[in-house]
Design a protein that fits this description.
The chain is mainly alpha-helical. The chain is built from 4 helices and 2 strands, in the order H-H-E-E-H-H.
């Protein structure tokens, strides 16, 4: 997952766009929305979800706990309830490390190409 909130300029994202950001199904996002009150996209006419940057950040936290760390939904809820700030910091560090790894892989490919 290479989502970088600083590169995004839009104010709202559709459920399809958010699902692609995290490579998950739209139904999973709707399910998480029911399970985690911190995920609360704005609903426009016809019940169309509009996700803000804050919603995407909260989805990133849930994604980190459930998909990357393998926690159960109950475990993720508990972790967010007990220490959301530490969870945010840990997820940010992991994201930065993934970005650094991506850059290193690109550099390595460039160097391999030159030799």
């Amino acid at each position: 997952m290479a989502y970088n909130p600083n590169k995004e300029l839009k104010m709202y994202y559709s459920i399809g766009e958010v699902a692609r950001m995290f490579d998950v199904n739209e139904s999973l996002l709707r399910y998480w929305e029911k399970e985690f009150p911190i995920i609360s996209p704005k609903k426009a006419g016809g019940n169309i979800r509009q996700y803000r940057k804050e919603d995407i950040e909260n989805i990133r936290l849930v994604y980190h706990l459930v998909k990357e760390k393998g926690m159960t939904l109950q475990g993720a809820k508990q972790r967010l309830k007990l220490n959301k700030e530490k969870t945010v910091q840990t997820a940010e560090v992991i994201n930065r490390l993934k970005d650094i790894r991506e850059e290193l892989v690109k550099l390595r490919k460039s160097l391999d190409f030159l030799t």
